[in-house]
């Protein structure tokens, strides 16, 4: 973790003026603490988009195409059981739909939808939001082999939402990239200033990191295995030709872009930007922490400053290489972990000592697919992975159900966010940190009817969840927690008469992040 510029805690405490501290905290909590929403809060339903993938040649050949899914544009899908499905054969079970069920979404995208249209209809607005200082979460949901990774990442020649997001961010920022290296995001909404030594460390990491990329390019050229090749080939950013977003900012406004990439694998969090250790060495487990506003963040996760879309894309590719994939019976390249790629944007007024105005985040999660173990015939490690994947998705479902319940009825139910790492991490996005959008992927195969029905039922609940989105004002001079980092790090901090003392108090309370005790025990064991 970055060091604060004040050296000792005692030094900080000496300077706290209690009344100032109280005033700062009151104004912070008045606007930030949910559920006491202020007028600046927005409430909207979780956006849920359905994407139906096309049949593969083998699926068509094997009679999987039985008109199970019909689209009723623009937002409805009708699911009918295939004639030969297990459910249809058990006609005595009256609880099973025999004529079909309709499900409504924010929008339904059919199998012929190009990646570009899908991106523009779903995620592009969230990219605009993050450039304007908002926070957003995008997550994919669906059974294994339904097209989540295709939608999220896509092949190099047909980029998915994530590479397109990177492209739009950098084409919109254009020349206004902040090339300085002295400011780094920290925790959730804070940032810190780096001293010369820390800046040199960051630069050295980046050189080492991108050197790996060159090495991969070389070894990739000699790869015989088509599985690995399809994942890791493509070393340059494709031209997605996405239209830039017009940002109305003056020439002194600059944007500093940082990315991180981690996975949740068997309930452990791994940094995908750290190379996987060789041999019997285990990956380091990272911990979830919370700032005092209740926002979760991964402690000690590596954030890399990227100045171009190509750099960001390389980070994505290298991280992907470290992710846990395996071949399963249903998907030859199945994600066995939930991967979380986060983009943080610091909007900076770059005159004299640069001042950070907002820290915003777009978090993109490609969730591993739920699966029926009988169908996948998984054993050993694959079975354990599947158990963990299914468990965390089940808890996500429970959380959405409880949120939905609490919005409709009393007494409120406990929302079990803490029962899985995934939901614990995502919690703040459902509780006021920003907007959330879910992408549901299905395939239309007759043999997947039961799973598809479950996914669509899950989506129907999600669609009704209301997400609270606190539109945080830009960082106000000498008031917010973020400003603290500037104040305590600037050279003029000892000038008499400023209100630094109360802000220092706020900062030291931010140091007091909560650790997940279970994790700590696990790591010790
Ligand atoms: N819209 C699409 N157009 C063409 N092919 C697609 C589309 N969506 C998915 N596919 C293909 O379907 C197969 C499965 O897709 P993908 O690997 O994205 O599934 P997944 O849901 O991520 O699976 P898992 O959860 O097991 O990782 C891949 O071969 C992919 O190329």
TrEMBL record:
<dbReference type="InterPro" id="IPR019821">
    <property type="entry name" value="Kinesin_motor_CS"/>
</dbReference>
<keyword id="KW-0505">Motor protein</keyword>
<feature type="domain" description="Kinesin motor">
    <location>
        <begin position="45"/>
        <end position="465"/>
    </location>
</feature>
<dbReference type="InterPro" id="IPR047149">
    <property type="entry name" value="KIF11-like"/>
</dbReference>
<keyword id="KW-0067">ATP-binding</keyword>
<dbReference type="GO" id="GO:0051231">
    <property type="term" value="P:spindle elongation"/>
</dbReference>
<keyword id="KW-0547">Nucleotide-binding</keyword>
<dbReference type="InterPro" id="IPR001752">
    <property type="entry name" value="Kinesin_motor_dom"/>
</dbReference>
<keyword id="KW-0175">Coiled coil</keyword>
<keyword id="KW-0963">Cytoplasm</keyword>
<dbReference type="Pfam" id="PF00225">
    <property type="entry name" value="Kinesin"/>
</dbReference>
<feature type="compositionally biased region" description="Acidic residues">
    <location>
        <begin position="509"/>
        <end position="525"/>
    </location>
</feature>
<feature type="binding site">
    <location>
        <begin position="142"/>
        <end position="149"/>
    </location>
    <ligand>
        <name>ATP</name>
    </ligand>
</feature>
<feature type="region of interest" description="Disordered">
    <location>
        <begin position="495"/>
        <end position="525"/>
    </location>
</feature>
<dbReference type="GO" id="GO:0007018">
    <property type="term" value="P:microtubule-based movement"/>
</dbReference>
<dbReference type="GO" id="GO:0005634">
    <property type="term" value="C:nucleus"/>
</dbReference>
<dbReference type="GO" id="GO:0072686">
    <property type="term" value="C:mitotic spindle"/>
</dbReference>
<protein>
    <recommendedName>
        <fullName>Kinesin-like protein</fullName>
    </recommendedName>
</protein>
<dbReference type="GO" id="GO:0005524">
    <property type="term" value="F:ATP binding"/>
</dbReference>
<keyword id="KW-0206">Cytoskeleton</keyword>
<dbReference type="GO" id="GO:0005876">
    <property type="term" value="C:spindle microtubule"/>
</dbReference>
<dbReference type="InterPro" id="IPR036961">
    <property type="entry name" value="Kinesin_motor_dom_sf"/>
</dbReference>
<dbReference type="GO" id="GO:0008574">
    <property type="term" value="F:plus-end-directed microtubule motor activity"/>
</dbReference>
<comment type="similarity">
    <text>Belongs to the TRAFAC class myosin-kinesin ATPase superfamily. Kinesin family.</text>
</comment>
<dbReference type="InterPro" id="IPR027417">
    <property type="entry name" value="P-loop_NTPase"/>
</dbReference>
<dbReference type="GO" id="GO:0008017">
    <property type="term" value="F:microtubule binding"/>
</dbReference>
<keyword id="KW-0597">Phosphoprotein</keyword>
<keyword id="KW-0493">Microtubule</keyword>
<dbReference type="GO" id="GO:0090307">
    <property type="term" value="P:mitotic spindle assembly"/>
</dbReference>
């Amino acid at each position: 973790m970055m060091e604060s510029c004040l050296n000792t805690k005692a030094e900080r405490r000496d300077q706290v003026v209690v009344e100032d501290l109280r005033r700062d905290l009151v104004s912070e909590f008045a606007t930030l603490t949910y559920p006491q929403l202020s007028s600046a809060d927005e409430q909207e339903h979780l956006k849920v988009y359905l994407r139906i993938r096309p049949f593969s040649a083998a699926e068509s050949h094997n009679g999987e195409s039985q008109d199970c899914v019909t689209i009723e544009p623009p937002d409805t899908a009708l699911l009918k059981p295939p004639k030969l499905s297990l459910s249809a054969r058990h006609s005595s079970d009256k609880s099973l739909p025999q004529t079909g069920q309709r499900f409504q979404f924010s929008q339904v995208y059919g199998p012929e939808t190009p990646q570009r249209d899908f991106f523009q209809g779903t995620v592009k607005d969230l990219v605009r939001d993050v450039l304007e200082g908002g926070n957003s979460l995008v997550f994919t949901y669906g059974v294994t082999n339904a097209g989540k990774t295709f939608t999220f990442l896509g092949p190099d020649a047909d980029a998915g939402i994530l590479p397109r997001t990177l492209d739009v961010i950098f084409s919109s920022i254009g020349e206004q990239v902040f090339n300085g290296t002295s400011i780094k995001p920290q925790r959730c909404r804070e940032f810190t200033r780096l001293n010369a030594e820390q800046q040199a460390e960051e630069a050295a990491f980046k050189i080492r990191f991108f050197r790996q990329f060159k090495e991969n390019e070389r070894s990739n050229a000699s790869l015989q295995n088509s599985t690995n090749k399809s994942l890791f080939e493509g070393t340059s950013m494709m031209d997605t030709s996405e239209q830039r977003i017009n940002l109305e900012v003056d020439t002194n406004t600059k944007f500093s872009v940082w990315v991180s990439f981690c996975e949740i694998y068997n309930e452990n969090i791994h940094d995908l930007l750290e190379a996987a250790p060789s041999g019997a060495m285990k990956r380091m487990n990272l911990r979830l922490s919370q700032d005092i506003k209740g926002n979760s963040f991964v402690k000690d996760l590596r954030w890399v400053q990227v100045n171009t879309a190509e750099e960001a894309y390389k980070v994505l590719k290298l991280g992907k290489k470290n992710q846990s994939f395996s071949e399963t019976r249903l998907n030859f390249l199945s994600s066995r972990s939930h991967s979380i790629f986060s983009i943080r944007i610091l909007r900076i007024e770059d005159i004299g000592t640069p001042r950070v105005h907002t820290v915003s985040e777009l978090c993109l999660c490609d969730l591993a697919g739920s699966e029926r173990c009988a169908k996948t015939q998984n054993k050993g490690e694959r079975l354990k992975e599947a158990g963990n994947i299914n468990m965390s998705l089940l808890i996500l479902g429970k959380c959405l159900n409880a949120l939905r319940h609490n919005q409709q009825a009393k007494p409120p139910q406990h929302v079990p966010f803490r029962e899985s790492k995934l939901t614990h991490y995502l919690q703040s996005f459902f509780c006021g940190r920003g907007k959330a959008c879910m992408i549901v992927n299905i395939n239309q195969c007759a043999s997947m009817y039961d799973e598809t029905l479950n996914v669509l039922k899950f989506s129907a609940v999600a669609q009704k969840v209301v997400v609270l989105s606190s539109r945080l004002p830009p960082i106000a001079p000498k008031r917010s927690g973020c400003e603290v980092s500037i104040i305590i790090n600037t050279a003029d901090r000892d000038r008499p008469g400023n209100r630094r003392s109360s802000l220092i108090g706020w900062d030291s309370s931010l140091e007091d992040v909560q650790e997940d005790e279970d994790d700590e025990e696990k790591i010790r064991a």
